[in-house]
Design brief:
The protein is mainly α. It has a two-stranded antiparallel sheet. The longest helix is centred in the first third of the chain and has 38 residues. The N and C termini lie far apart (about 75 Å).
Length: about 400
Amino acid sequence: MIDRLDQIFVLLKHGILGYLPENWQTPVGVILSVVCIVGLYPALFALTTILERKGLGRVQNRIGPNRVGPYGILQPVADGIKSLTKEDIVPTSADSVVHFLAPVILVVTVFMGFAVLPMGRNMVLVDLDAGLLFYFAMGASTELAVFMAGWSSRNKYSLLGAMRAVAQMISYEVALLLSSVVVVMMTGSLSLVKIVEAQNHYTFGLPHWFIFTPWGFAGFLMYAIAGTAETNRSPFDLPEGESELVAGYHTEYSGFKFALFFLAEYVAMFSIAGLGATLFFGGWTAPLAALQWIPSWIWFFGKLFVAMGVFIWLRATLPRLRQDQLMNFAWKFMLPMCLLNLFVAGLWWFMGSGWMRWVLCSALLVLAYVVMGRGELRAKHVGPRSYRYAE
């Protein structure tokens, strides 16, 4: 019974395909999986927006949405209707074709990443041997869509916002990729399914998640920071600096096109959170051996929502960085730490088992963090924000 509950979606899919001819089963199975993904994550997006607005309201001593439906829970429906019915305004000087394609390409590339994410036991659309490589290839395509949006609008604020976004995304994508390489080094595979299987072991009831190693913990911290910047979330939301750029690269978008940008941002957050859970927190595996009876997909989506809660918490807590601080932090702190973590992971592997590798690897990472952190603070590249009047 427990196993059937764990595989309920897989069994349901096979049950539907059983009524079809054999040569139809593979393409229809892919279509069913795609429809489920495309339907599920926009629904989670709607749920997350109301939770975020309610949560931010509580942090800021406000009530939050409370007019549409009981306790305001139907606010996402009202927002969706508003987006569908608002006029689609395209500037006369804009490149209308590129202006239209930019949000479409952005949403498509963001959804493509879910094709290789295992969302439960036997619940992955395509188990590619180079799944992680495919994921990052799709992620890199989002930068093209962002630049298309800013350039096609023929608006200096949009173009400046697009250039900010592309510079930020390229800078932090380097750290995002390097922080993931340590996991590939340890598992010897780019398949996300095999990466999860490598962590699906228990000792004294505790899991062998990579987060519980020095290189895994450091890699996760780098991944979390880079992932936050990659999705343009606070405190890295400079491409959408309202006080400077109106709305950034999507200034000249309205109606449903703007809603697509909004959807892409949140779906990208789900995607980044899902990959982080897969790489460092065992994906769909349980946190304790005694809890393995709970369906695997519940664990995956539970970890996903914890990550979304952290995203909301950061937005409510941290002020926006300056552009110079953002770029200095990426290239002068994040990149050296990620490269050092690659060396530490190799050292961990060749030292074999024993407590000595724990001490040495942890000491190297802590020492590097202290030295580089103090150096950046002395140089004032990062650190406390200062305000002064223009002269």
